[in-house]
Amino acid sequence: MNYETKRDVLVDAVDALADAQASGGNVGHQDANLFMGEYEKALPDDLPVIPKEVGEYIKRQKDDLLTEQLFVIFLTIQYNINIDNPPDLKAENWIIDHSDTFARAWLDGYEIDNKS
Questions:
Q1: How far apart, in Å, are the Cα atoms of 1 and each of 41, 42, 49, 101, 108?
Q2: Which InterPro entries does the record associate with it (predicted)?
Q3: Contact predicate 40/101, CB 8 Å
Q4: Is 64 left (phi over 0), alpha (psi -120 to 50) or beta?
């Protein structure tokens, strides 16, 4: 997975433009198209920060073909249905208390809180 953020791509583009100007060169359409392609693939700058246990929970659930959909995760936690995976109460309690952040992390990616 590419962990480059949109800001990282912007910084690279500005650096390339500055280098080109300093050397008397130019950044053309081909270069701009390359940066725009990288920008499209880059992660958002404001990824949610989640505990390590929740990151492991997301990875484990996404690897399980039966629970690859977000609504199944919320149903599983709500009704305490864990068919193949034992409950991870610390992660599940965090998910219940931070459901919006969890949904963003599931869909957009996330960063791990190193303090947790």
A1: 10, 10, 17, 21, 12
A2: DUF1642 (IPR012865)
A3: no
A4: beta
* C-beta atoms surrounding 25 within 10 Å: 11
When the pLDDT of each residue in the chain is averaged and rounded to a whole number, the result is 81
| pLDDT score of 66 | 63
Q: What letters, b where the CB count within 10 A reaches 16 and e where it falls short, cover 60-90? A: ebeeeeebeeeeebbebbeeeeeeeeeebee
| Average pLDDT per 10 consecutive residues for the chain, totaling 116 residues | 75 85 79 84 83 91 74 77 63 90 90 78
Give residue 64's pLDDT: 75
**pTM check: above 0.90:** no
Query: Backbone phi, then psi, for 49, in 5-degree steps?
Result: -105, 125
Q: Whats the size of the chain, residue-wise?
A: 116
CA separation for the pair 13, 92 (Å, rounded): 41
